[in-house]
Amino acid sequence: MTEHNHRMVTLHNGQSVSSWSEEWRLECEAMHALELPRNRRLVYLEDAEKERGKAAVDKLKAVILAIHNKRRQPQGFV
Which pTM value belongs to this model? Predict the structure, then answer.
């Protein structure tokens, strides 16, 4: 069995998780989706829902929205 070199990473909400965790995979997917133009992002999410189901995509959408909102906050906003 191969040993994976993982490290701790911080999610948008401040939570620390392994770089091999499902939470980090979801965070990376959400960041990728945010980089897509809006029309391509909508197609991406529609395709993901066909493959993984509505519940999985709803979870992804929630992370996308949370990251988007965090990016829009002014620096130093409490």
Answer: 0.85
